[in-house]
Amino acid sequence: LSVTERADNAATDRDFAARAQQLGRRRPLHHIGDDGFVASNDSVVIRKDNKVLSVDVSNLPQSFGNPAITREDVAFDVATVIMDCWIGG
Q1: Contacts of 46 (CB under 8 A, 6+ apart)
Q2: What is the pLDDT of residues 63-81, one digit of tens each?
Q3: How many CA atoms lie within 13 A of 32 on its CB side?
Q4: Which residues make Cβ contacts (< 8 Å) with residue 31, sequence separation at least 6?
Q5: In the predicted model, what is the mean pLDDT of the chain?
Q6: Taking CA 44 as the corner, what is the angle to CA 39 and CA 2, rounded to the nearest 5 degrees?
Q7: Strand pairing partners for 46?
Q8: What's residue 88's pLDDT?
Q9: For residue 35, which of 43, 44, 75, 2 has the smallest C-alpha distance?
């Protein structure tokens, strides 16, 4: 889990685009942050204001727990909790 803060929106746009290029943008995420995507390794990246949130789940097993959940679901759940705290902050 990491949050990177950039100096301005242009720098944030470049950071977000670079992560999408590096990780692969498997599908977009809507209604969370300003923009977001699920990466090809099931991680989640979200842009909000001049910050980029990354939830890297690439080292987790494909599914785990009882009942079993997927890495993508874990990444999305963690990102949602962080973004819920972020609003208004």
Answers
A1: 29, 32, 33, 35, 36, 52, 53, 79, 83
A2: 888 899 999 999 999 999 9
A3: 22
A4: none
A5: 93
A6: 125
A7: 36, 53
A8: 55
A9: 44
Q: Is the pLDDT of residue 87 over 70?
A: no
CA distance 9 to 78: 24
pLDDT at 71: 95
57 close to 70: Cβ distance less than 8 angstroms: no
Which residue in this structure is represented by tokens 């699920």? Answer: 38
Could you give the angle at the alpha carbon of 62 between the alpha carbons of 60 and 67, nearest 5°?
Answer: 100
Three-state DSSP string of the chain: CEEEECCCHHHHHHHHHHHHHHHCEEEECCCCCCEEEEECCCCEEEEECCEEEEECCCCCCCEECCCCEEHHHHHHHHHHHHHHHHCCC
pLDDT digits (tens, 9 = 90+) for 21-52: 999 999 999 989 999 999 999 999 999 999 99
**5 contacts 47 by C-beta, under 8 angstroms:** no
